[in-house]
Amino acid sequence: MPTNSVYVNCFESVCCAGESSEALFEAICTHQSGIKSFSEFIPNKSIALGKIEKSFSIESLLAFTCKKVLAQSSLENFENTLLVVGSSVGGMQMSENIFLRDHHYQNIDPKLHAIDAIAHMLSKHFTFRDDISFSTACTSSANALGYGYEMIAKGVYESVLVVGIDTLSLTTIRGFDALGVLSSHTCQPFDVKRDGMNVAEGIAVLLLENKPQPTSIELLGVGNSSDAHHMAHPSPDGAGALSAMQKALHCAHIAPSEVGYINAHGTGTQANDTSEACAIESLFGAHVPVSSTKSITGHTLGAAGALEAIICVMALQKQILPPNTHLVEPENKTLHFVHEAKAHSFRYALSNSLAFGGNNTALLFGLPQ
Description:
This protein is of the alpha/beta class.
């Protein structure tokens, strides 16, 4: 079967750092973090989180974002489009709110609780050819993009709408708190003084198609690995992340020396950053510019892969390297960390997403041939 090219033709996002993708990219380039301190999520404790300051319901905001993507496209509707959702929370926050209000489960709608609750919400606003949902923790929407890539490359679909979304669920926040990895201030990925991550919420929507538009960026390669080193810790030497990056490059027949930017997973936790830096160094050395943008957006969990894919796409379109923020003294002295946004001519960008259980995904984007 011939392999079709896969293009990112339209996209939009909403997160704590911006109500649009353009606003988000500007915030990253000017070091304007959306992370704030909150004391209502964990008793007697202040933590730093990324919260969308909107009065709209999550369903309304999600539908509005998808409508903006449809308006950008050449499609009249999504009737022949596959919907692929990536989320680690699904509708769990809504169930929590109902339970905390009523103190029982009677009024919880099962269709609005599970991971496919997002597809169920969107079915009220759009008609899709079909839908599928992925929940693989922090690689959820990266894997959704990978599945969309495969469906178009194999000629199964001509268009795929990928939605990455997660909200601030108490279950998630308190789970990460139990692991001892939440920071009380804006995270500092890759810094020697980093002390944890910032859980955040976000929506990221990308339309993949088999035909390009003038501003298209090509999704060239997808790499997956599952090293299963530990339930919650990556392998110290970054073997899983290394394998995923190698596979993404091999998929696209691209050499490491050709990559011009890496958007790292870079959560700000001790274990993740050491492991990922080791993996990047072993494959790229000091060659490639690297940044984590989570000090601006927070860690949007299942939405992170799609959100950071948009950041890579915009970096390629604008030919600007997104900088790290709050990176004062890197633990890894070899990597080429970007400290300020700057114009840079490059053709390929790699986005890493790493998750619990050693589930790793790397996505390679490039300027169309």
